[in-house]
Every structure is written in C-alpha cells, then in structure tokens.
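Model the whole thing, not chain by chain.
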Amino acid sequence: MKIKLLYFLFFCAAATVTAQQIQISGTVISSEDDFPIAGANILVQGKNAGTTTDFDGNYQLTVEKGDSLIFSYIGFASSTILVESQTTINVTLSPDNQLLDEIVVIGYGSQKKKEITGAVSVIDSKAIEKLNPVRVEQALQGQVSGVNVTTSSGSPGAASNIRIRGVSTNGDNNPLILVDGNRITDLSVINPNDIASVNVLKDATAGIYGVQAANGVILITTKSGRKNTELKFNIDSYIGFQEASNAIDVLKPRDYAILVNEMSINGGGDPKYIVYPEDGTDWQEQVFTNAPIANVNFDASGGTEKAAYSFGASYLDQDGIVGGDKSNYNRATARLNFQYDILKNLKLSTTAIYTHSNKNNLSEGAAGSVLFNAINMNPVMPVYDANEDDGFQKAYNLGGEIINPVAQLANTYDTAQVNKISATLGIDYSFLNDKFKLSSKFQMNHSVVDSHVFKPEVYYGPSKSFNITTNEVYENKDYYDDYTWDNFITYSNTFNNDHSLTVLLGMSAFKTYGTFTGMSGTNLLIDGQQVNTIEYASVANAETQINRFTDEQLARGSNTFDTRLLSYFTRIQYNYKGKYLLSGVLRRDGSTRFGPENRFGYFPSGSLGWNISEEDFLVDNSFVNLLKLRVSYGIIGSDKIGDYRYLSTLSGEATYVRNDETDASELLQGLAEGALSNPEIQWEKQKTFNIGVDTRLFGDRISMTIDAFDKRTEDLLITSQVSGILGSSAPGSAPPTINAGTVQNRGFEFQIAYNSKFSEDFRINASYNFTTLHNEVLFVSGENGFEAGGGFGVGIGVSDAARMEAGYPIGYFYGYKTDGVFTSQEEIDKSPISSTDTAPGDLKLVDTNGDKKITADDRTYIGDPIADVTMGFNLGFNYKNIDFSASAFASLGAEMVRDYERQILEANKGTYNLDRWTPTKTNSSVPRLSTGGTPQSSYFSDLYVEDASFLRIQNVQAGYTFQENLVSKIGLDRLRLYVSVNNLYTFTNYQGYDAGASSGAPIGAGIDKGFYPVARTYMLGLNLKF
Amino acid sequence: MKNYKIYITAFIIAMVTLTACSDDFIDVPSRNPNSDDFFKTEQDYQDVLIGVYDLLQASFWNVMVGEIASDNTLAGGDPDNIDGPAMQDIDNMVHNDVNEQLRDIWRWMYAGLNRANYMLEFRDNIDFDTKNDMIGQALFLRAYFTFELAKWFGPLPLLVENGRIKNKRMQFGEQFTISRTATIADTYTLIEADLIEAIGLLNTTQDLEYKVTKGAAQSLLGKVYLYHATFDAAKYTDAATVLDQVISDGNYTLASNFGDIFEHPGENAAGSIFEVQYTDVEGAGFDCLQCSEGNVAVGFSGVREYVGPTFDSGYGFNTPTAEAASIFTTGDLRKDATIFDAEAIATSYQPSRGETKLYNRKYLPRKGDLGLGDNNLTNPNNYRAIRYADVLLMAAEANVQKSAPDVTKAKGYLDLVRDRAFGNTTNRIDATLENILQERRLELMGEGHRFFDLVRTGNADGTIDGFTPNKNELFPIPLIELELAGAVERWGQNPGY
C-alpha cells in the first residue's frame, strides 16, 4: 500500500519537473550482508518526491541540485545525502543495531535499545562470522562482559558451561537458552551460521522469563528473510585441521628411569632400572593426532510483499585431536524460517530446525581415561608387543587403572546419535488501531538419542580394571520431548505524545517429558561361534540379552519423566518522552518440583532508566550521543533440582542374589527408597541489584557500558553430602535436596568499543571488556556449617577436597597449607609432623590451628576455582578488500588442582620433578620422591593447587573480498576467502592441558583429571553470495 | 467485517487458553511409588525386603579390612606405593578419623539399618500368611547391620523407643538431634532384642537359599551374647543356651571336606548357616562399590598381576603373614584351603607390599566367572557369614566361660571341628579357653572375625602390632561424619582418637 502511494507521489513529482533537474541512479545495499535492498525508500527532503528501489536494489530519480535525499528501510538506519553534481549515488545502509534505535528482544516482546533498563549484551551475526566458531558458546567467550564459558572437554561436540555473572547456586548454574523463544539445553544442535543475533540478559529484568532465568537468559534469534527481497543464496565453507595446542611435560625415558630408581630407593625398595634406557614411547604423541575439520553451510533467503523466508542447511565433520575418528563428531542441520502476513494485522511466524548428529565418545577426564593413561604410562615401554595376541604392550606394574592408551583407543566403540527437531509457531494479532496485540506462540522439541556401546573382550594386562572377559553391547534409545505454550496480550499506547505505556499480561505452560529404553547383551555369537568385532556388535547377536528396565519398572513408568511449569506474568513499561523509563514485572510461577504447599511462588522485579542525553543540557551535545543510567532490582525463583525431591519415592536400587542366576535378568529385584526426601523444599530466590551506565561518544565512535551488580542467592537449593546415618549412600539413593544458605556474587563490568571509519577504504573497530567477580558464601544453614564435595587423587582418595562454607568462595579447595620442604632432620624434630616417617625433602604441612600437631583440623582454604577477573579483547580492521580480526580472552586469579598424576612408582612423572629436593640440592621447593607415606603423597595440599590464570588468543582471521565487478562476471554478488586460526596460543603457567577447562560443578570445579584439551584449529574458508 | 470475526475468534481463543490451563496442570503424580503410602500387598513387603538384603553385599570391607586389622594379614596392595592408605593405616594401627574404608562401613551399614527400619516402620499395615517370617528376616537384617556397626564403632547414634530400636527411618534433620547409646553393652541389648523377636517369627527352613532362617538368627544371637559377655559375664550362659539349641536342633552338619567349603559348589551347602550372596552376572564400577552384585573384597584380595592356573588376578590386598601360615600343624587340612602360596604355581605375579607371597585362598578370584566390567569388582564368591564350625566353636567357648562351665560339652564341639580339620580323630585337644580361641583363628582365618575376637577376649594388646589398649578396641567415627551431623561434641569421638 505504502509502495503504491510512493509511486503515486513519484509520478506527481515527475509531472512537475523543472529545468535544473538531474537524473540520478544507484543501488542501495545492506552493510550487513552486502545484498541489495529491495523496497528501500528514497525521499527528497522537504518535497513530496521520492521512489523505492527495485528487486535488485536499483533506483532512478530525478532531483534538483542541492536536494537532500533520505534513504531509509525498515530495520536500517536512514542515510541523508546531498545532491551536488553526481549522477550515481550508491548507498550502503547499516542495520539499526549499530545505532540507538536497535530493537532488542527482551522477552515476550521487544524494545528499542535506547529504552532498555536492564543489563543486556548483544552479539550479532557479524561478530559470529568473524569468530568462525564450531559451537555457539565459543562466540560468547570474550565478546561480552559478565559471561564466562568453560569447557569440561575439548572433544568435538562436547558441551560447554556458560556462567553469567558467576556461580550462584550449588546446583545447575546454566542460563536459560531460548532459540527463537524455544528452550534449548544443548547448544551443540545449533549451527552458528544460522544465528542472526545473540542477546544476553544478565540482571533481574530477565525475571520476565521467571523460573530458570535466575542464571541469566541467552536469547538466540535465527536468521530470517526480509520482505520484498529477491531470493539470494549464501554459501560458507571451510576446511581445516586441528592439533593439540600443548602437551604436558613428562619425563623422557632416561630421566624417568633415574627418578623411578631414586623414588624406589627412598622408599626402601630396590632400583628398577640397571641400565638407563634412551629410547621409549612418547605416549601423548601416540594418542594426539592432527585431525581434519570441514564445514559447509548453505542458506537462502528472500521475501515477497507478504512473506519472508529463510532456509539453511549445513554439514560439519570433525575428528578429534585425541584418537582421530574415535572422537569424531558430525552434524547435519536444516533450518526453515518463515513469516507470513495473513492479514495486515494477523502475522504468522514459524521456524523449524532439524539436527542429526553422531558423536564418538572416548573415556575422558577420569582415572583410566585415554589422556590420563597417556600422561602416566611408563615411557620406557613400547606401544606394541608382537608376542601378545592383540599385538599391544601390556601395562605391567602400573596398578589397576593405567593401561596402554593406544590399545584402549583401539578397543573403544562408543557412539551417540541424536535426531532432533525444534519447531515454533507463533501468531500475532493486532487490533483496535494496533494498540492491542494478542500473541500465541507454541514451541516444541523432540529428540531421539541412540547410543551404542561395544566393549570387546580385551586384556590390558594382569589386574586391570578394564579387562573384559565376556564382550558386552549396550543399545539405548532415549526420547526427550518438551513444549512451551505462551499466550499473551500486549497493550501499547502513547498519550499526549509524551507518555508511552506498554502493558503485558500473559501465561506460559511448559512441559518436558521423555522415555528411556534400551537393551544390553553379553557374549556375541554368530552361528554359535564367539565373535569379538564391531561389525557383529548388536544385542541381537548376544547370547544373553537384558532389558535396561525390568518389567515392573516399565509397568510403573519408572523409565519416564514428566516435569511441568505453569506461569502467569505481567509487565508494565512506561516512559516519559523517552527520558525517564520505568518497568515492572510480576510473575507467578508454579513447578512440579515442589510439594503442594510450596508449589507456587511470586517473583517481582523492577527497573528504572534515565536517558540523560535527552535532557536539554545534553541533547545538542555533539560529543555525548548517548548517556543513560539504569537501575534494576528483582527476585527470580529457581527450581533447578531433580524431580520429586519433596517426596520419598521408591526409586532406589534393590537387587539381590538367589545364587543360581545365569544372567542379570534373573536377579531378585525389589524396591527401595531413592534420594532422601525433604518435604520442606521451596523456591530458591535470586535477588539481583544492578546499576549501569550506557554511553556513546564522539559521533557514536566510542561506546561504553559500565555495570555494577550484587547478586544474592537465598534459600540456595543444594544436594550435597549428608550424614551417613540417614542412609543416603544406599544403592540408588542420594542425599536430600535442601534450601541451605546464601551465596553472593558481586562484580563490576566494563565494556568499551571503538568504531571508526577513516575513509571508504579503511575502517577499524576494537573492543575491550572486563568483569570482576567476587564470590562469597554468606551463610550455610545446615547445622554442620559447610557442604562438601570434589574428589581428589586416585592414590590419596580424598572425597571432600572442596567445600562451600560461609566466608569463602563457593567450592573453595580444602586441604593442607604447606611451607616448603624440610631441609634437615633437626628441622623435622622441632616441627609438628604428620607421620614419624617424615624425612628431609618431605613437604612441610602447616599447623594452622597451632596445636603442635598435624591433624585433619589443620585443613583450610588453599585456593578456589573462580576467576577474579575475566577480560576480552577484540580487534578488527578493513583496508580496501582486506579484512582482519582477532580476539583474545584472559582469565585471572582462578586456581586449578593438578589431579591427573597417578601417584605410583612406575607411572611417568611431570618434568618439574627434575628440580626435586635431593640431599645435594637442598634449596628446592619440590619435595623428594619416595614410595613411602610422605606428606606429599598422602595429603591433599596446596602442592597440587596451581594458578590457572591465562591469556588465550582465541581467533585470528584474515580475509580477502574480491572486487564486485570481477565476481559479478561469474554471477556472484560476493566472494571472500579467508584464513583463520582458532585457539592460536595460550599464555599460562598452569601445567595441565587447559587452564580454561572446568567440570562446571559448583563444588569440585577446577579439579583437573586430564581434561580433553581444546584444539588449535587452522581453517581456510570462503563466503559466497549470489 | 471479516477482520471483526477474526478478532472475536482470536479473543475467545485467547481467553480460553489463558484460563484453561488451571493449576492442576502441574499436579503430576510420581511414577515411582510414594514410600509413605506403599505397603498394600504381600509382594510389596517382599520387594522392600530385597532392598534390605541388598546392603549385605556392601559389607565386604567389614570382612577384608577387619582381617587386615588383625594379626592374620597385612594390608598388602601395590608393593611400590602406599596403596589404599586407609587400609595401610589400619594394618599398622595408626589409623585416624580420616579413613575412606571406615567411612564406607559407617555409611553403608547405616544404609542397611535404615532400609530395615523402613520395612519395620510399616510392619502393621496389612496381614498375610508369610508376614511373620518376613518381619523376622527384616529384624535379623537390622540386627546384622547394627551389630556390624557396634563391632567397629561401639556406642551408636540410634533412635530408641521402649527399649528397642525404633521402627522408623531416620529423617533428614534428625541427624542433628540424635544421640549415641550410652554404652556398647546397651547397643548389644538392643540387637539381642531384635534377634530374640526374629527367632520367634522366622521359618526353620526357607524355600530359597538367600533367606535368613531361624537357625541363623539363633547363631547370630549367640555371637552377640559372646560380644556382650565382655561387659557382662552373665551373657556367656545366654550364649551357651542359644548356641546349644542350634546344635541340638540338628539342622546343620559340617561339610565333610574343609577344602570344598570355599569353592562354588560349597555355597549355601552343608555347614552353611548364613551367607551373603554374590554373583558375577552384572557389571560394576568404582563409582558405586556398594552397588556391585559381586564380592568386591575378592578382587582386592586377588594376586597382583597374577598369570597362572586356577585363579584370576586382583589387587593383592589382605595378604596372610608368615606367622599366620605357620600356626597350622602338620596334617591340618585347613592350611592349603586357607593359605595360597603364589610362588608355588604362578607363571608370573607381582608380590604385594610386605612381600609375604601368601594370599587368602578362601576368597580369591576363581577362574571361570563371567568377568563383566570391572572384572575385579564382580567376583561371585559368597561370603560365608555364619558357618556351623563357627557356631560349634562359639558354643564351646560359651560353655567353658559360663558361670557353671560344661567342659565336656565344649570338648565335644571342639572335637567335631578338629576331626574335620585333620580328617581323623587323632588330633583332638583339650577344651581350654586358649585352645578354643586358637582353634577359632585356625578355622576362621581370612573370614574377618579375628580382630574382633582378639578385642572381645582382651587379647589384642601384645598380639596385634601397634595395638594401643583403651583406644584401638574401637575404630574412630570418621570426622566428616561427626561434622556432617553437627555431632563433634554431641556424640564425641571414640576414646584415644
């Protein structure tokens, strides 16, 4: 309609052409994707003249010299150009999100960025493209303040832990992730190329999302088409290879033999090596490999007058740097995004994402895992032994857990296949002059996880835990479903031009449910003959076949789950002249996870904003383009606990033996209590205060955001160790979930970005952000005053190496302080010691309570895994056809526990032991080696705690875009080639593989059992548009 | 007009949806039964009873670590390292209140106690024919778990009501208020009351081998009386009475060949009064040792890196001392069934720490089991918890010790054990207390009784290296368990720790 009117105006204008008129023409393109913009408006300022661009973005217009042309298009900042003598005016319009009118999705609606009163960070598709991440989470690290991403494994396809403003609960610290409004728990199913923008809601204004928003919200919007645009295609592809970015320094064969002998003799044993071998095996080299990665992404988008559509498909294939295809991950995705205006005031939008992935799994991050074995395996041993049936060297004299990692890889067959479909359907209906909008959105996910594990008959050597004498196959199929149905009505109106009011009223119902099924089999037979190869590895071929669930469990439905949430919410937003902003939210949440008395909770939040730059004294200031002050406070409820923890259910393990069973299906199965119940449990409450300032200076060249926050989690929901007399260590049981304590996260966030265009040929942008975090447990309600967790040391066997206790950071490391090593017997004689066997060179434990004895009471704070400061740096420039970008991330002040060393004589050792204390080198702080019960081998002390500060160059990318007139000859709009390196280098003093790794557990994070390290990846890629 | 209709329709749909989802949307009943509203059929009782039995399998440390604590065996393990430091400490009697194995024993036996209490909490819900027997089994099992705890830790935190252990699960919160029984003797009195009731309820014979019998309850009662007698000598008479009854009822005989007892066919066979049942048909892992359906202690006791006939390898713990092996006199058939000399038949092996090269043959991993992952944790060897020979020797001891001793009767019992041990009647000895106790060591070596026998008879001091009187009679309650219950002061630590 508008277009027709404009044409009409154009013809009117054309009819009154005068003599000074000049004919101009040109193309309007989008800076976002370099595509032409169809339907862009061109108006002659102050006159009733203008036109619109055609499908190829071209326009022609007759104007007078001295006219100003205003180029505009919905969602883009308009541009004004003075007509002098030029006859061609090509204009590049930038999307609004570069500017203040950017529309930001805020939950059940959107808002102009300028009017936002919460702490929100945005990452757009450009930033994602620059980082070229394999996974979405990688694009978050270092890009915005307050967000920290750690990996528990660098294995392809493995999940990351996202923490927004610290660790606040003892349970699940993951933020709520919504993809087009649809809850997604596993981001691996999302292809980063499909993403248009990522918004991170960090403060109490996330409260509109209620339950599960307590850890923050990440809103991901996938790419959609634009109306009135021609069908356009995009192909992005890269190939590359990955390599291990570092190895742990362990002893070479000769040094190893010398140290083993010394250790044995110190412990009263005999030397193990008469001859010091020069040759051996570098076991890490044996398991690490250069692994290929390839990705191709295709998308198409376009739109008609009423519809906009976008379609994407991608395929990723990635081998792992450990074991190559034994940790392969491949993923195919398809996405459809479609919007259609059924009527002018009735709009439909729908999205669908299909993902198919296969992931091969290795044993990781535990005693006996592949890397653990590669670190600890005897370096003198060869990989192969021709005298053995399977040709592999057996790991003699290395205890039950350490086995030949190359043999282990060869015998690992563990695959999980995921098929998932996520879909959304939404209808918006506007009525009464568009003042009211009624919205109904339905989102669903359906996924099927097929896992297949084959454990072949294998012999790794005598006494090994991993020996299998009868082969086993596991085939499980798990179904996960969920849906969310949101219905809400929005009223917006502006009174007297100055008072804007938006009122939202709505409800949301969420249900997640699923079913687990599976079979296992032992002893594979083909025609009665035992077989032991993967090709025959199916339960169907097994002599004995066992259902994963008993008939009784299936009849009860114990293999299913069903969890629901029901919420009602309202929000009022008011602003006066865009200067004074006010927003309030009230939510009533109900969760199946609490008992009938505590099922519902009411959670309010509110925020205020003041656009100081709109005030008279600043409005015309050319230096300050924006200055806004924001304050918010709110309470968000959290229900992130297991199901039915308020009820004592018979879900434990009750299995006994008649003594005539031939397979596991014949065992006696009964019923027993599962996790201990706590009928009193109630909502955890997250109380967040945030104050922030947004500013843009010098013609928007510099933008800056500063936030200070204080987030208190009260009635923290905890499941940690309880007194054993309650029976929680029974098979299938667990401690109760309780509301215990308060945790505070305080911090300061600062973000500055600089963006400048020096000329058409040279543009530069740079940004820097940092976040400080002070985590402190304020109060633990249990009468014992602490919560314990975190296992350390296969040999030492400490099960409570980390604690949550008032006055300390959550999950701090709890052990013995040390004060160097004893240098003489005389010194030992006058010091408190832990054992009478103590000799010079042994670690000196500190008697912290001063009782002249070393006892368990001397354990204290020896570090914590929470970084004090994290920061991100991003730099980019374009010069003519060349573009360059780089990003780095730093984390300072976190500690990690070195727990990948098996404390036994013939296990390999870190090279730091070359500096050990010896009678001739008495100035060393590294304790002597001994097989005896020394303080260093028997106690969890700060000897094992290391500073894990690091600076990582995350990504460096350089690209070249070919001249448009060159590529257009072969029918392309754009052709760009680039080279990129991810995870280029990490500066750190930490000795383990990855200073940035973490298990993500609130109590017990940072204990490093040999995390699968993140790979360094070299990529060569191209971007094509046509 | 068209718009208007859509407007109306949409508005109605919206109103319906906004209100249709009433709060009962989130009333989803649990698929698994609610434990507070359960016992409705005989099968329900049977199902819960299986769960009580389950925890018996978690008593493997009690047996193995108990043996290591005694003078019979060394901790062993890896020769080059401090392997299983908690067990090494106990072996050397230098253990303190931070000890992995002690914590496991504490937690797992309490888990069993709580499961028994769950069944007994609802013992009066319904009636059916087999109920008495089932309640009898539950009472026996509660007594068994409580007795294990009392042996290790002495006076126990227990809920007590009317002179009995309260028929009620302990609920979260109660750990902060519960107090310890005043004395060890008080604890034994509570255990005896359970067993006396169980004896009145239990069947003499059962349809399935795993089930507790009346004889088992009588035998355990006799044993508890013997332990109790350390504090109250009158209990010897009670012990003699109930143990004599087991013998005179004539339901049990000794297996003719001692060597057969600990092989697979010997399980639940002649001479067996009560066994903890284990199997190899299901895998297990270190993350939940108490969940294993196999006997974890067997893999731990296996010869390290053993390659050779008859046995599978293991971790080399619990290795008999040369002194222990030397006490068997010539002709004692028990020696070869009790002590395995790896040097004799192994192709290769790694001697354990302490290098005795001797192993606890009664509980070694045998070749031929299924070996599902983790092979070392899933050995099927049943634990012969109460053997008839044990009953005979306890009865002999009680008859010698009671206020009106009956040495003749005692000698008769002792002779039965000696005759079987030597395969003839020419090696009989006098029924002195010393002889009877020595015979217990010979007969029951490797079965986890020795340490507690030495303690209760007052013979530990001077016999066990490093044993400190008035301290090592009991083990310390793990510090973390005191802390978690807020009971560092309320329960207090055992003396000397």
